[in-house]
Amino acid sequence: MSNNYKIKLFQDEAARCINELYKKGYLPNEKMGDVSVRDPESGYVFISLKPGTLPLRELSEYHGSDIAVVDKDGNPVTHHTIPSDNLALHLAVYKARPDVNCIIHTYPIWSSLFSERKEALPYVLVEQVEASTNVKCVESAPSMTKEYINEVVEKLGDQIYVLLYHFGSLSVGANVDHAINYLAWMESVARKITHASMIGELKYINNTVGQLVTEGFEYNTGTNYNVFNDYDQILFKEEVARGTRLLNLRGYSPSGESGDTSVRDLKTGLIYISGSPTWCFQRDLRDARGWERFVTDINETIYVPWSEPTCEWPMHVAIYRKRPDVGAIVHTHGEWASVFACIGMDVPLSIIGEGLTGVIPCAKFANAGTHEVANNTAEALVAADCCIMSNHGAVAVGRTMDEAMDKVAWMEQACQKAYYAILASGGVKADARKAIQKLSAE
Fold it and tell me: What angle do CA 141, 84, 173 make, to 5 degrees?
């Protein structure tokens, strides 16, 4: 591949990053952030332009040829454009982090609520721990001085995200898609925590999590469950892959990496579960494919040595044990159910205006990937088809994948209605329990 052609490919990738961020609302105009991509082989950095360099109506008009190119020391490789004023910051992060090949600097709404208070993101949700995201905040006023840049690099450390006082945030990743996912992920977490803090006291968790996956389990090698030899298995695996993709497409996995689904063949008892996103080499859950799915049964027998499951696979198995009528399970990190997960509270159905009684139960907290969280969740679903997982997310069950997905949609709407009912009744900061008593009395 010629050097000029390779440069063009990376310029196009940087332009794609800008266009994606613009479409998602993270870059409202060319003065509200900057992005860069690095070629790990040559060390060249492809960075967005100094604001005002090009007469653009909107950022979607950027083309790859517009992107500035410099070497690892900041010397221009192309001379027709001027790189962002924040070039020195990007170069310093790349120097400190050989694993990073994309940097996104922008001003997201919800993360800024923490950065402007000079606060780190507190550990409230398990998804933060699973992603190993210890998000700190740079407390100095922004400048491109050596001291400021050193603080940014130090506070970012080996993490994927850092908050910047008066300067938005940095999201970093091995490629453009990972960096965008991480930005969406942390912005979603900041939004959930903020919403939850307005109606109750946050429940904090520590930054350790159980990573069970498949350690200590033996594979069953006596039966041939090769996916290519059994048409029924292909159909079940493709159905789980479809459900996994829907998590992201319908907004129940804002990060594109959290949440999982499963289906059970009621004839054979085989259970098909989402694979680990890391093992599957997915850009996000929309890349889920049938052959990657994990196969087990209610005895936790492992039939596919080539697949690594989501760490929550014991939870799926535990629910199927408790609910022989269930044929599909959807585990989400949807926004509104997660708000109540942050404060560990049941959602009363009497306040959502649908004439219902009872609650969407909230299962007790336990570390992700453990049999304890599996049993807590399964117990909460004995008499309900939906439940919230404290400090975690939510689960819905059904006879089919579509039925379980419909219940997820209803649960999200019910939690949103309950949230605003509590807020409208109690004001800011609302006391959720007092508001519920008032609303229920009415």
Answer: 80
Strand boundaries in 71-129, DSSP class E: 102-106
Fold type of domain 3-197 = L-fuculose-1-phosphate Aldolase (3.40.225)
Q: Quote the tokens at residue 134.
A: 């210890």
Please name the helix (run of DSSP H) or strand (run of DSSP E) that holds residue 233, with its range, or none: helix 231-249
pLDDT digits (tens, 9 = 90+) for 381-405: 999 999 999 999 999 999 999 999 9
CATH superfamily of 227-441: Class II aldolase/adducin N-terminal domain (3.40.225.10)
Q: Which residues contact 285 (CB under 8 A, 6 or more apart)?
A: 244, 245, 247, 248, 253, 256, 257, 259, 277
Instruction: State the first-to-last Cα distance of the chain, in angstroms, to the nearest integer.
Output: 72
Helix or strand holding residue 343 (H, E): helix 335-343
- Tell me how far apart the alpha carbons of residues 364 and 345 are, in angstroms, rounded to a whole number: 10
pTM for the whole structure: 0.86
Domain residue ranges of the chain, discontinuous segments joined by +: 3-197, 227-441
**Tokens found for residue 414:** 């019910």
